[in-house]
């Protein structure tokens, strides 16, 4: 395999990686949007029905509503944090790939490879720690849905 084929393969890999990370960030944005829609479509009818039917809430039910709202808000915030982390990673990855491509254009293959290896050693892309926000988002949203179910059951009984 000659140097030009290696360069082309690296370029294709970088493009595929960029598409992957962009898709991941878009999925995160879609997930946050879906959760906001779920919140609105669940809570608005629930609270409206409480007002329409003039339901008197116990202090436990009021506490449950506050807890639900806190979990949902925290879920959305952690989703936005995850979205921001994914976007930052994607932008740094894209900048790095642009720099690598410029090395290939400006230098001979061997010199470019040395610069690229040096760049990867000095500035490794960090991806750790970002799953915490996504995990918290899922847990908080699930807990909120469970509490909504409990609240509805307590209102029906």
UniProtKB/TrEMBL annotation:
- What's in the keyword line of the UniProt record? Membrane, Transmembrane, Transmembrane helix
Membrane spanning residue stretches: 63-85, 132-156
Name of the featured protein: SMODS and SLOG-associating 2TM effector domain-containing protein
UniProt source species: Candidatus Woesebacteria bacterium RIFCSPHIGHO2_01_FULL_44_21
């Amino acid at each position: 395999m000659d140097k030009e084929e290696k360069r082309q393969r690296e370029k294709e890999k970088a493009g595929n990686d960029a598409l992957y990370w962009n898709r991941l960030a878009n999925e995160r944005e879609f997930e946050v949007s879906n959760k906001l829609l779920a919140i609105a479509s669940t809570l608005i009818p629930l609270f409206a029905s409480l007002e329409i039917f003039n339901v008197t809430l116990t202090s436990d039910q009021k506490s449950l509503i506050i807890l639900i709202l806190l979990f949902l808000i925290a879920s959305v915030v952690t989703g936005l944090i995850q979205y921001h982390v994914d976007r930052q990673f994607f932008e740094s990855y894209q900048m790095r790939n642009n720099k690598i491509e410029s090395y290939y254009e400006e230098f001979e293959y061997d010199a470019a490879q040395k610069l690229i290896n040096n760049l990867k050693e000095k500035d490794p892309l960090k991806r750790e720690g970002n799953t915490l926000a996504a995990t918290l988002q899922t847990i908080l949203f699930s807990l909120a849905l469970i509490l909504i179910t409990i609240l509805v059951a307590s209102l029906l009984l």
